[in-house]
Write a structure and sequence with these properties.
11 helices; single chain; 254 residues; two-stranded antiparallel ribbon; elongated; 75% helix
Length: 254
Amino acid sequence: METETATAGRQVADVVAERIERLIMDGVLKAGQALPSERRLTEKLGASRTALREGLKLLRARGIIHTEQGKGSFVAPISQVDAGPLVHLFHSQPRTLYDLLEVRALLEGESARLAAIRGTEADFIMIRRRYQAMMDAHEQDTDIATHAHLDHAFHLAVCEASHNPVLTHTLQSLTDLMLGSVFACVNNLYHRQPHKQQIDRQHTAVFEAVTARLPDQAHQAATDHVNSVRQSLGEIEQEEQRLVRATLRLEGWA
């Protein structure tokens, strides 16, 4: 029969686990991020080391965190999407990029609207930092991969300001595919000056509408931005196909 002390210890461990879960769901601790040290966690949570260890054991059993020998504990992906087939389609079927951008328009339009309504000053500081880093990189000779990551970080900061953990984690679960689409956009559009200027203006419109707490404008700006990128990539694809057909005719193949 369980002793009162053991029962109390288990209850404290449950509380510790629930508080860490909340930090993860609220985006304070992000997927893939290492948990703070044991000492820092006990200080922040006001729990004993024994209760903390029991709480972490519960989280490991639930698959919410995982531990690597010699490295520590890390936050596991919360809404793990089986992206394998999507990754294959993304690489083998170019049309998947347009489907992904369609999903991005839906997710980012709503996240921008909610961010304008619910965002705190701390959220807006983070959005401003991400926006400035992205714009500064555009003024420098920064490599394409860095551009893509900075672009994605800006959009993710807006989404986190929505304070909808499900929306945020859904977007994070698509990170690899999102980065793929952002990379494609940056690679194809940023070396074309008119498109680069248009994207910069659109990012600015999203940034200004969200931080000015204008939800309808924020929703429209974010949706227009992604749909515009989708349209521009379609136009570039058609242009390249026309070039290929013309070259084949010139060489006597058609």
